[in-house]
Amino acid sequence: MTAAVVAASAALAHFVVGSRWEDVPEDVRHEAKRSLLNIFATAFAGSRDPATGIAIEVLAGLSGPATATVIGRRERFDPLTAAFLNAAAANLHDFDDTHHPTIIHPTAPVAPALFALAEGRRVAGADLLHAFILGVEVECRIGNAVSPGHYRRGWHITATCGVFGAATAVGRILGLDERRTLWALGNASAQAGGLVETLGTMSKSIGVGNAARGGLLAALLAERGYSGPERPLEGPRGFLPVTADAPDLAAITGGLGGRWELRRNTHKPYPCGVVLNPVIDACLALRDDPDLVPGRVAAITVHGHPLLRERADRPAVTTGREAQVSAQHAVAASLIFGAAGIDEFSDAAVADPRVQALRAKVAVVEDPTFPVEAARVVVTLEDGSRLASDVPHGRGTPMRPLADGEIEDKLRRLAAHGCPGLDPAPLIDAVWSLDRSPDPGALMAFTRPAET
Amino acid sequence: MTAAVVAASAALAHFVVGSRWEDVPEDVRHEAKRSLLNIFATAFAGSRDPATGIAIEVLAGLSGPATATVIGRRERFDPLTAAFLNAAAANLHDFDDTHHPTIIHPTAPVAPALFALAEGRRVAGADLLHAFILGVEVECRIGNAVSPGHYRRGWHITATCGVFGAATAVGRILGLDERRTLWALGNASAQAGGLVETLGTMSKSIGVGNAARGGLLAALLAERGYSGPERPLEGPRGFLPVTADAPDLAAITGGLGGRWELRRNTHKPYPCGVVLNPVIDACLALRDDPDLVPGRVAAITVHGHPLLRERADRPAVTTGREAQVSAQHAVAASLIFGAAGIDEFSDAAVADPRVQALRAKVAVVEDPTFPVEAARVVVTLEDGSRLASDVPHGRGTPMRPLADGEIEDKLRRLAAHGCPGLDPAPLIDAVWSLDRSPDPGALMAFTRPAET
């Protein structure tokens, strides 16, 4: 290891503190806005979920001065609590963005921490966007360094790496120097957690919510001089060696300021695990085939990358939340309903007898020759005939990204679902013009239902 | 693995919910009170540390209704924040109790969560003591199951296992059923974190504070129906397999209700890593030797269990906090000052030129034939003569526990240090009679400085 590689934590702090807005390429800035639009969309969707309701019930009596917005809700909270609730809600359906190489959902931990802060302290829009870009950069680079072993072992990478992203972003907007940025990373390292075992349950959202809250707290503490270790990432008992068997330190320090991780961010068309995107595309294509009558299906096999089986081979599901990571449910619901939105991944859809019957006929077949963004679905009918659909690149994968207009549509649809009556137009405009805003925290008012 | 072993999480929930106060042996109840006295003592010590001051500064503006006490301080906070601050302060100097097999500091995460709750909801003293005992039981059994690999890899076991203890204890006092107790454990699993790399820095305290706060939140959420995974501990991506290479599930389920982990709890005479106890005892004994003049020392070797070297071979220290895990500092300070209290592990003591000079002459020698509670210190003088001291069992180790009166003295001493003018007598009485108290939360008033 070279000296530069060893000092990964310091290299990140140096980069973050020294980064200039004019050095951030236009396409990266644009992608940041897309990511923000998308996170508002999914936060609206999550704002009505029972998990959000319970968390609000519990935290309402424990929260401090109500300066920060919970997207899609009337209640306001202190910034730490709002960051927690918005991150948890935004990631709740796994409908938020995905950094393709790591499967991190990068925006949920970072943006809510920034907006919660920005509602209380006046910052410039360009500074907020810049801080967001840097937070995602750090979060995803750390994720690159520990992948794929970290997630495979059982770490919920969005939560574990997200806390570093939030701490970095908030630290940047607070104007921390390199030493304090390093402390912010150290204070974040003490809070990194979240287990894959919790996926499909409400508990998952605590990990993601804590990533945003913990990152915000980490930076606020560092700002006042709360000190951390010199090498929170690469130290012998630091985050990287503890949570990964062979961390790749060069993935953190290589090409800083040249390569931008947001360029590898993607947005989902469906509210479920990203590995299911091409599977659903294949099923929706098959459904147009007049020969396909669900009642006549004998068996369905889904062929895909080993991650598909590892993360989503889940035949027995009882809740909508579990269904988000069930290939069996995704296949059955999309073939039966001809759609794959929030409603098709609800408890009601899971309990539908037609879906249950079809789900039981679906098997997942692992095939290492498939890239993760591809899938093949083969339906065998009772008469022995077969229908097949191949999707080399699912919608929303890097080769087939959602268009800006599709992300706007997603926001409109999910705002209507989560916050009926809200006009999403001012929010959409405010995000597209964020870098020119003198007070980006003000846009949070556009995410609240109208006062009655 | 038998079925009983596989269902470790459910077995714990079953045990905790079914445990009866009359089944808890008298010596375990007594040890619980000793542990509480000790945690109040160390919380007083931590209450004046700059780390506590910064955390209070940051959280003051973000906290909810001020119902809960921060030990040794006038400020009050919401229960989540108070649990965080008290746990962080109590463990800050590593002067709190130690569960010998795991080196967990068991009380810091658990008791602050319970008392923060008890200041807002009326509970019976015996119920609080019972919940505390069960919380420590769960925390330490999980610790047993992942030791020694978990800490060795870099997990700060007090934080990582503490969150389960706090969730269990609070869940018990809330009267959660087995299903919800399991959810509380699941909600805790999403928050387990804390790295050994942060030891010696302020960041460490965030992990321990979060364990208390997170455990309290986990149980409050579970009470309202916030659901978690079925097998948060032993599931394939659960806490045990993710954070330990060969978790011992039988250590969790074996002898539940028969073996009590509090019986293996110990209390420290010195504010530093527990591995340094016998080292300091040896140095204080050597100091009585008239031949030992620090200025004439040529070299000092400290011989001990491999953990001593692993955790405390730290010749270069610049802060009191680092000094807590430095054998070199512990040796130099105790030989020079003839004492090893908070003052001898302060920044000022670390900067003392006499201590610096002597520290540079100390080497740590690993010897696997030593048990962890033993040490040998050999001083070589400039004339080549040698002085040696062997300590087979340090003070405060299981074979040589502190007496009740010594723990009371420790509380008096640290209350005087952290909260001058406070009369500790009512607090000491209240802890000894806790099981007969109708309102144990009321004793927190005895931990606050008098209103002026």
Structurally, the number of domains of chain A stands at 2
Low-confidence stretches of chain A: 1-5
Strand content of chain A: 5-15%
Count interface residues per chain for the largest interface.
Answer: A-B, 61 and 61 residues
Domain MmgE/PrpD N-terminal (chains A, B): 11-248
Protein name (chains A, B): MmgE/PrpD family protein
Family (chains A, B): Belongs to the PrpD family.
Domain MmgE/PrpD C-terminal (chains A, B): 270-417
What does this protein look like?
The structure is a homodimer of 452-residue chains. Chain A folds into 2 domains: 3-267 and 403-447, 2-methylcitrate dehydratase PrpD; 274-391, 2-methylcitrate dehydratase PrpD (60s Ribosomal Protein L30, Chain: A, 2-Layer Sandwich), CATH 3.30.1330.120. The longest helix of chain A has 22 residues, at 26-47. The first copy, chain A, has 452 residues and is of the alpha+beta class. The first copy, chain A, has 21 helices and 8 strands. In chain A, the strands form 3 sheets. Chain A has a 4-stranded mixed β-sheet. At the A-B interface, helix 4, helix 10, helix 11 and helix 12 of A face helix 4, helix 10, helix 11 and helix 12 of B.
